[in-house]
């Protein structure tokens, strides 16, 4: 699959078979993460955690349900969550640090699509989890790192047809 075909097939997947990526596929996905642009080249301030442990995945979902008061499954039964964390310069992550984390997640999502795997960016349930020290400890992050976002990945029965992208899907103005 070439780059543009991958871009036009990429979508958020919310139904998984329960089977995760193979070790080889995970290696490719992680290499895509490592190829991501990061603000000021601060790669030492980035951390990736691959979570396959069911008790952690269930704890994230349970926490989101308790926090919102609505039973939910924000990880959609995906067998793998790849968490992206930063070591912020200030007390909380800046926009540029969140943007770097998002770029890492997006590269992994594109790699998953190219491999025929489903993926979905995860934000809200991780933000809620950051408010629970006991849950954050389960991530085993290095000292000073904060979870920003993540991507769930797994096998899916969904198809990835090439989407027709309308020319002005996003309003655009060109200044000349």
In a nutshell, what does this entry contain?
With 176 residues, this protein is α+β, with helices and mostly antiparallel strands.
List descriptors.
alpha+beta; NADH Oxidase; 176 residues
Characterize the biggest β-sheet.
4 strands, antiparallel
Structural class: alpha+beta
How confident overall, as mean pLDDT?
Answer: 96
Assembly state of the chains shown:
single chain
Per CATH, the architecture is: 3-Layer(aba) Sandwich
Write the layout of secondary structure elements.
Elements: H1 3-9, H2 23-34, E1 46-51, H3 54-68, E2 80-86, H4 95-114, E3 118-122, H5 124-129, H6 133-138, E4 146-154
Antiparallel strand pairs: 1-2, 2-4, 3-4
Helix pairs in contact: 1-4, 2-4
3D architecture notes:
- The chain has 176 residues and is an alpha+beta fold.
- The chain has a single domain, classed as NADH Oxidase (3-Layer(aba) Sandwich).
- It is built from 6 helices and 4 strands.
- A 4-stranded antiparallel beta sheet has the order 1-2-4-3.
- Helix 1 packs across helix 4 and helix 2 runs antiparallel to helix 4.
- The model has no long low-confidence stretch (mean pLDDT 96).
